[in-house]
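The freezer alarm interrupted the setup, so I double-checked each line after restarting. Inputs confirmed:
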Amino acid sequence: QSALTQPASVSGSPGQSITISCTGTSGDVGSYNYVSWYQQHPGKAPKLMIYDVSNRPSGVSNRFSGSKSGNTASLTISGLQAEDEADYYCSSYTGSSTYVFGTGTKVTVL
Amino acid sequence: EVQLVESGGGLVQPGGSLRLSCAGSGFTFFSYEMNWVRQPPGKGLEWVSYISNSGSTIYYADSVKGRFTISRDNAKNSLYLLMNSLRAEDTAVYYCARERRDGYSFDYWGQGILVTVSS
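Predicted 3D structure, all chains:
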């Protein structure tokens, strides 16, 4: 199972919106509405930000939103803040309780 | 408060074995499916293995199939990963991760434990 494709880096100024793409195949992203997104600060464990394509867990800011079209999912961060600077990973269910992660995107707040 | 705490990592020679443990607390451990996810130094996340809440259903990534064994002891609120025939490419931080009750994503993660395979 090949990793989902994400841009290596995305940057934006405070207050701006950025979007991170996550491209898979018809066997993963395209087949299931089970894409999730994780935020990881350096030296820390990943944190769930979005599940089932567009749902936010309790406690996650509504500045984070997710969507999907075909084989590509997207994470949008609006009103970018300094604390959003981190690595972000998408993940997709691939059937039979197996998963694949994305290559990861480093978000820089300028 | 939900907590997952890994232990058992360290330095091991190529071809060697290691058993990781993950102790869960703050939730009804036996009700949740669990996973192991790893992250090589400076690299991305890789899903490693899944175990159902009863332990009856298990899956592995192709990269570890036949070498790693996942298990759990619900009486001890613990998850395990037995790693055999270790290779340099198994060097990574290993995380235990709880699956959401409705499945398909990981809502709580341990702090991670480093496994280094080197001679």
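Quick read of the result. The radius of gyration of chain B is 13 Å.
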